[in-house]
């Protein structure tokens, strides 16, 4: 029998192989669906830790991204993953809500998180996960699929945009539409002491989010760089450090712009600053 995708009903012709499949679905038939930017703002603002990921995972506010993620999930799958189911939805965050480190990436990959439902699963992703593992922040050095038992400790992993964008390039409007999800997430992550931005877009997103949320931010605007840090202050007076890292993309790792030692060093700094 074909395997129906949860909520979307997309059918797949092959059984789900062991160790693959989707994560436990945070949403159900009663989860409200955001269909435009205003609904994203409203539903994000009303969300609590138990409902935020659910609402993120069914968002349909950006027509171009919805069409692309579902096209890849049904007709654009890579041959290497032809017999796997595809999530084909926005990728929720991963990791404990009492995490002291919040890692922010750009967006899911078309055949990575768009396939598995887990952030940073796909080409080159084990480079990042192995660094998490060496730092004692992940239970395994690899990330294959949602059913592989991988888990994060003391760290939560999210992104500025939740849907896989064509050519890995979300538009300005799409980034702005998605922003309330991560804004609310940061409000709810009360134990976070370090925000680790993977790349310049994640850095700029984090600064925009905290500034619009009433945090104190250094001026002039801190410039992104690997290992660069900036002190931010929540409205309650709690200090949170924004820490920069080059994105662990294949372009950066293959060219040596980002090395394993460099990533290990920035994660060590994050742990120290977070008190882990």
UniProtKB/TrEMBL annotation:
All copies of domain Uracil-DNA glycosylase-like, residue ranges: 92-267
Keyword Hydrolase: yes
Domain of life: Bacteria
Signal peptide extent: none
Alphabetically ordered keywords of this record: 4Fe-4S, DNA damage, DNA repair, Hydrolase, Iron, Iron-sulfur, Metal-binding
Membrane spanning stretches: none
InterPro entries hit by this protein: UDG_Type-4/5, UdgB-like, Uracil-DNA_glycosylase-like, Uracil-DNA_glycosylase-like_sf
Sequence segments annotated as region (Disordered): 1-31
Pfam short name (any one): UDG
Keyword Endoplasmic reticulum belongs to the record: no
Family: Belongs to the uracil-DNA glycosylase (UDG) superfamily. Type 5 (UDGb) family.
Protein name (Swiss-Prot/TrEMBL): Type-5 uracil-DNA glycosylase
């Amino acid at each position: 029998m074909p395997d129906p995708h949860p909520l979307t009903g997309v059918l797949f012709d092959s059984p789900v192989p062991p160790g693959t499949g989707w994560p436990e679905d945070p949403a159900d038939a009663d989860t409200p669906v955001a269909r435009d930017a205003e609904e994203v703002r409203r539903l994000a603002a009303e969300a609590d830790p138990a409902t935020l990921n659910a609402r993120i995972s069914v968002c349909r506010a950006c027509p171009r991204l919805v069409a692309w993620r579902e096209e890849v999930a049904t007709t654009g799958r890579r041959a290497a993953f032809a017999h796997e189911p595809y999530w084909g939805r926005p990728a929720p965050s991963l990791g404990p809500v009492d995490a002291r480190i919040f890692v922010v990436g750009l967006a899911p990959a078309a055949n990575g998180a768009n396939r598995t439902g887990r952030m940073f699963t796909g080409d080159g992703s084990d480079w990042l996960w192995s660094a998490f593992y060496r730092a004692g922040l992940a239970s395994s050095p690899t990330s294959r699929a949602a059913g592989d038992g991988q888990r994060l400790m003391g760290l939560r992993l999210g992104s500025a945009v939740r849907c896989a964008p064509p050519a890995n390039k979300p538009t300005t409007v799409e980034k702005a539409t998605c922003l309330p999800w991560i804004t609310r997430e940061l409000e709810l992550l009360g134990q976070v002491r370090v925000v680790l931005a993977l790349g310049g877009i994640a850095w700029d997103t984090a600064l925009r989010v905290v500034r619009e949320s009433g945090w104190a931010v250094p001026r002039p605007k801190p410039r992104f760089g690997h290992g660069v840090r900036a002190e931010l202050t929540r409205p309650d007076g709690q200090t949170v450090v924004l820490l920069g890292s080059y994105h662990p993309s294949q372009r950066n790792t293959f060219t040596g712009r980002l090395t394993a030692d460099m990533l290990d060093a920035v994660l060590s700094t994050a742990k120290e600053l977070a008190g882990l």
